[in-house]
Every structure is written in C-alpha cells, then in structure tokens.
Write a structure and sequence with these properties.
An eight-stranded mixed beta sheet has the order 5-4-8-2-1-11-14-13, with no helix packed on it. It has a five-stranded mixed beta sheet with strand order 16-17-18-20-19. Helices cover 27% and strands 26% of the residues. Strand 16 and strand 17 form a beta hairpin. The chain is α+β, with helices and mostly antiparallel strands and 479 residues long. It is built from eleven helices and 22 strands. It is globular and about 60 Å long. The longest helix has 19 residues, at 376-394.
Length: 479
C-alpha cells in the first residue's frame, strides 16, 4: 500500500517520474543464479494463524484452498449477485464452518459437498452448521445478493477511506481492502496467513468492463474471467467494474501487462502507466523474474494505492491533477516492488506488516536515487529525523497499534533497518538476499523469526540484534 509519507517524500524531493538515462547506476548486482522456488504451495494449502492485531477477522481453524467467485453487477439497483464455491480444509475438528462475510448480503442456497445446509450471517460472520473432522476437505457453496457496504479503516492516515467494495454515485464498483475488507464482497477467511487460489468471473452491463486480480482468462460476452496459479491473501484481491479502456503492453521476458483506465478520465496517466516495463525491468535486474505470469494496473477513484496481486489498484485521486502526475512513477515502483515483497511472500499476521512496507519503501528510494532523485545517503539522513518522531508518536514498527494501521512507522522505520543491512552487506549480497527471500518463499506467509533466521543463514552473519533493535526500539537506533 502507498504510504502518505511516501507520496509526500516524492514531492518534497522534487523527483519527477519520467525515467531518463540513469545519471548514477545504484547497486546493480552481478548476474545471480536462478533461485529455486521452494517452501511455497501450488494448491492453496496454508497454515492459518490467529491475527493478534485484528482477532475478530479470520478463522485459524479453517484453511481455504480455493475460491470460485461467480459475480454479476446491476448498477441500476446497486445489487451484487454472487455464488462463492469454496474448497476448504479443517485444520482441526470444528462443529461449524465460519468465514468472514458482510451482513449487507442475503444468503440464498447454501450447501456443503452438494448437500443443502443452513447458513446465516451474524455480526460479520457467515456460519454454516456442518461439523468437519480434523484434516477433512469440503466444498462450501453460497449464493448471495445485496448492496456492498464498506467498513471503517482502522487508521489515522490522511488517505484513510472505508475498506472494501465501494459503490460510486454512478453505479461503478471499486475496492481497497487492506487489512480486511475482502469480506465485503465474498465469504473469506480474511487474514493474511490463509492464502488461496482464485477463479473470478464477473458479469457487467454492456459497454462496461470487469477487472479483477489474477491472470486474465478472457471475455465471453459481458463476462470477464480471471484465474491464479499462485495463492493469494484475501486482502490482495481486487475488483473494479465500470467504463474502462484497456491498454496492453509487454514487459520483461514477454510479461503481459494490462492497464485499465477510466474512459475519458485518466488519459493523462496512460503514458506513465505504459512505462511499467521499464520499472519492472529495473526490479527484475535486482530481485529476479517477476513472480507471477502477468501483471497490470487499474485506476479507481481512491486516495490511496494498493499492491493487489497481478493487478495494482491505483487511486486516481492520490495522483490528483496534472501537476501531481509526477507521483505516479514512484507509486508504480512501490506497488510493483510489493509483487516480490508482500505478495510472493507476505506476513503471517499484521504484526509483521513491516515485512511488506519496509522493502517496498526502501526499494522505492533506491529507484528514486538511481533516476535523478536524492542520493540514498541524503534520504537516510532525513529519514532518521522522521523515524524519531514516528517512533515517539506511533511506537516501533514491530509493534503496530490496532487503531493505526499502515501508518508511517511500518514504512520508514523498517526501511531504515534494511538500509543498515544494505550498508553491512554491500550491493551484491544485499540484492542476493532480497532475491533469495522472495524467490524461495513464493506462496507463503512468514514472520519476523523466519526472516531473521533466513538473513542469518543466507549471509553467514548474525543480524538478530540489528533487526530486533530497529523493529523494537522506542527511539531511533544509533548508526
């Protein structure tokens, strides 16, 4: 997710986003051997854990392996009609199947393994009275209909908006849903540790488009379909329905990139969006091949931006009028960096959001520095001053507050920690570390302990104290 502090830093630095010939190549590593993908999953199997920050969301007793979502949007009545076919596994014996789901919907036919069962929604939970033995796998099917309603964002950020599927005044749809909000449009185990595979089909009015996360499967009439081959955390899914224009470009190694802009509204953004192959090439040079078979971006009427998997969700309002178009390049670099750091491998709980945002923020600064922006040394000097205030006001990044989700401490303070690792290791070993971390954990959710163990093993040095100090100290650690 884009940080308000990130956007402000771009403006203060006076750093434009047009990619020119690099005045100073920063930290280009030598060619590295391909990293074998390991430790991940290809069938959607996860090990869910209870989230300590938002315990009301998610069910660690259930592992969702696949979501099949068949959706239809009627803007005249503002009605979303859906059928969710969910393959799930009981991690332990349960008397009921419980998933997060908005009370804005009416439940229709509900079944488990083809047998009709009673389902109900109470206080944001869908509950189905079907016992499952530990390890049992079942298929839950739920028909539903209603008008989407977002939920409050637990943050004081300047770009805070309600979370989840949002209906515009002219009947279009869009969503930003981190840390929870996927359950405003489908039954979900809405926590980061339970990654699953997806197939999404959305039927829209004639002349409209349906955009979702995943690899495009094509269009049949007014139905747009998407699929995933790598598991996705619920907060990384997206849906946008409206009057869109599609632009297709090709990225590194023939990577398909699909760009969706609001027809007649976002034309000024298209030239910078079309530079996505350059941004992705810069990232691939340092961190290896893009971890997914396609990518892209969709513009929505939001004040934020989100690294939704394989289809970035970019708020047109955060970009603003033409003078602010310079924001778009750094935003794209930040969100594309998340495809490696946050999407390929992400946090198992929201306590470790720094694992996502520290990497994306630091990578964004490296890109800025190598494209005419302030030198990283200058950024570090300014960032240390900001770090002190953020820790005083929000606490250290390793202990985020439930009412202050995704505020500046988890971005900048943890980016400074990575800066210390970079200085200690040098360019080649630092980029090799990032490449190996993302490449060897594709499809998994990890935590601080796993990251520290990996860093120590990968480097042959003990960085436990450095990492813990930067994540836990109430004041800025000394140099």
């Amino acid at each position: 997710m884009l940080s308000a502090i990130t956007a402000a830093a771009v403006l203060l630095a006076g750093c434009g986003t047009s990619v020119t010939t690099e005045a100073r190549r920063l930290g280009v590593p030598r060619p590295l051997p391909s990293v074998a993908v390991g430790g991940g999953n290809t069938d959607g199997t996860s090990t869910p854990v209870a989230d300590p920050i938002y315990p009301a969301y998610g069910n660690p007793a259930i592992d969702v392996q696949h979501y099949g979502l068949t959706l239809a949007w009627a803007p005249d009545t503002k009605t979303l009609t859906g059928t969710a076919t969910i393959k799930l596994r009981a991690v332990r014996a349960v008397q009921q199947v419980r998933l997060d789901f908005s009370s804005a919907y009416r439940i229709g036919k509900t079944s488990v393994d083809g047998v009709d069962v009673a389902g109900r929604i109470v206080s944001g939970d869908l509950t189905v009275d079907r016992p499952l033995a530990a390890g049992a796998v079942a298929t839950l099917s739920v028909e539903y209909q209603g008008t989407p309603a977002p939920v409050p964002m637990p943050s004081h950020r300047g770009d805070s908006e309600p979370l989840g599927l949002t209906v515009t005044r002219d009947g279009e749809l869009w969503t930003m849903q981190e840390p929870y909000g996927a359950s405003t449009w489908y039954p979900a185990n809405d926590q980061p540790s339970d990654k699953a595979l997806y197939d999404i089909a959305v039927t829209v009015p004639a002349g409209w488009a349906g955009v979702a996360s995943g690899t495009p499967k094509g269009r049949s009439g007014d139905t747009f379909s998407y699929t995933t081959a790598q598991p996705v955390a619920s907060y990384l899914t997206t849906l946008a329905v409206g009057r869109y224009t599609k632009t297709e470009v090709t990225g590194p190694r023939g990577l398909p990139i699909t760009l969706w802009t609001r027809t007649g509204k976002d034309d000024a953004f298209i030239p910078e969006l079309r530079r996505s192959p350059e941004y992705l090439g810069w990232l691939e040079e340092r961190f290896g091949s893009h971890p997914f078979p396609s990518t892209g971006a969709v513009i929505v009427p939001s004040e934020s931006a989100m690294e939704t998997q394989q289809m970035l969700t970019i708020g047109g309002d955060v970009l603003g009028s033409r003078p602010q178009l310079a924001n778009l390049g750094p935003v794209l670099v930040h969100e594309y960096a998340h495809q490696w750091f946050g999407n390929a491998v992400g946090p198992s709980t929201w306590k470790d959001l720094w694992l996502n945002e520290g990497w994306a923020t630091y990578v964004e600064q490296l890109h800025n520095a190598s494209h005419g922006g302030p030198a990283v040394e200058r950024w570090e000097q300014t960032a240390r001053q900001q770090d002190a205030e953020l820790r005083r006001r929000l606490g250290p990044p390793g202990s985020p507050r439930a009412d202050s989700f995704a505020e500046g401490n988890v971005y900048l303070c943890s980016a400074l920690m990575l800066r210390q690792l970079h200085k200690a290791l040098g360019d080649e070993r630092f980029f090799a570390l990032g490449r190996a971390w993302a490449g060897s954990h594709v499809g998994t959710a990890q935590d601080r302990a796993a990251f520290i163990a990996f860093v120590n093993q990968q480097t042959g040095r003990d960085f436990t104290g450095l990492i813990d100090n930067w994540l836990d100290s109430p004041t800025t650690p000394a140099r």
